[in-house]
Amino acid sequence: MLTAGIDVGSRTIKVVILKGYDDILGKQVVSTGINSTGRAERVLNGLLQQVNYSRDDLDYIIATGYGRINIAFADEKVTEISCHAAGAYAEFPGARTIIDIGGQDCKVIRLDKEGRVEDFLMNDKCAAGTGRFLEVMAENLEIPLTEIGEVSLQTRKAAAISSTCTVFAESEVVGLVARGVPRAEILRGLHKSIVKRLTGMVYRVGLEEEVVLTGGVCLNSGVRKILGAELDINIKVPQYPQLAGALGAAKLAWLNS
Ligand SMILES: Nc1ncnc2c1ncn2[C@@H]1O[C@H](COP(=O)(O)OP(=O)(O)OP(=O)(O)O)[C@@H](O)[C@H]1O
Ligand SMILES: [Mg+2]
After folding, report:
1. Which of 44, 110, 114, 183 has its CA 20 to 30 A from that of 93?
2. Do 109 and 198 reside in the same domain of the chain?
3. Residues 17 and 142 placed together within one structural domain of the fold
4. Which long-range contacts (CB under 8 A, 24 or more apart) does 197-201 make?
């Protein structure tokens, strides 16, 4: 059986094609853009073509993510909470807490032993504590997004960032640069401020190990390490952290078809 999971996030679209429950036939991450429907469909068709299949061969498609409503051709739409839970639990059956840090929101999900969602918390009110916050700061500091995590780990000294709001934090960063504060210290401070918001959410939901980190921000080594140190635990990272929601959607498609 062939299934697909499509996760239309605020920053990226993720598509996973599964053959059976375990075999990933195709996967891709592209930026969301303004025509997410057309882009998701092109990515899906392109991936199918690469492995010599067509749309008729697909048994079931589940769409998830912020923009799932636009994916009219999906057989079913499922919340991000359920899909991230399914994706993380499939790889780590010991997962009890899942932290997803995306471009626009962050979520903390608590699972029971069978992988059912017991509770969750979502911050989607502002960009603070999300990937977009880090993107804005990387641009300000003229350091590639892919490098800011490593740079933040180059020092143990963190510049004080008092604003949680992205716009005010951005002004603070501009001020710190003007005062000659090293960029590593500024980044350490920014990463610590994100982690502080996340740990607050984790403690409200209740920290239970194993803890799995998903979402694009998981590719940032600074967030991974500082969050692990702050929670004083060993955080599990899936093989494809950014694809966890799409993979979970494809697995649920296999179960629901
Ligand atoms: N290579 C990378 N290194 C570091 N950070 C990265 C990398 N690629 C993406 N990111 C971060 O991941 C974020 C996007 O994550 P993701 O793709 O999970 O978001 P999304 O699912 O579109 O958003 P949301 O779930 O909030 O709607 C970016 O904002 C960026 O901060
Ligand atoms: Mg997402």
Report:
1. 44
2. yes
3. no
4. 197/106, 197/123, 197/128, 197/129, 197/164, 198/99, 198/101, 198/106, 198/108, 198/129, 198/227, 199/227, 199/230, 199/231, 201/106, 201/108, 201/121, 201/123
User: 């409503």: which residue's tokens?
Assistant: 69
> Residue-wise pLDDT tens for the chain (257 aa)?
999 999 999 999 999 999 999 999 999 999 999 999 999 999 999 999 999 999 999 999 999 999 999 999 999 999 999 999 999 999 999 999 999 999 999 999 999 999 999 999 998 777 777 999 999 999 999 999 999 999 999 999 999 998 878 889 999 999 999 999 999 999 999 999 999 999 999 999 999 999 999 999 999 999 999 999 999 999 999 999 999 999 999 999 999 98
Nearest residue (by CA) to ligand 1, atom 3, is: 146
Q: Which long-range contacts (CB under 8 A, 24 or more apart) does 227-231 make?
A: 227/99, 227/195, 227/198, 227/199, 230/195, 230/196, 230/199, 231/199, 231/202, 231/207
Dist. CA 212–CA 145, nearest whole Å? 22
- Residue ranges around ligand 1 (CB below 6 Å): 9-12, 65-66, 102-105, 131-132, 134-135, 145-146, 215-217, 219-220, 242
Residue numbers of the domain that contains 248: 1-87+240-257
pTM of the model: 0.96
Q: How far is the centre of ligand 2, averaged over its atoms, from the C-alpha of 92 (Å)?
A: 19
* One domain, residues 119 and 207: yes
Using most ligand atoms within 8 A of CB, pick from 11, 79, 105 the residue to mutate for ligand 1.
11
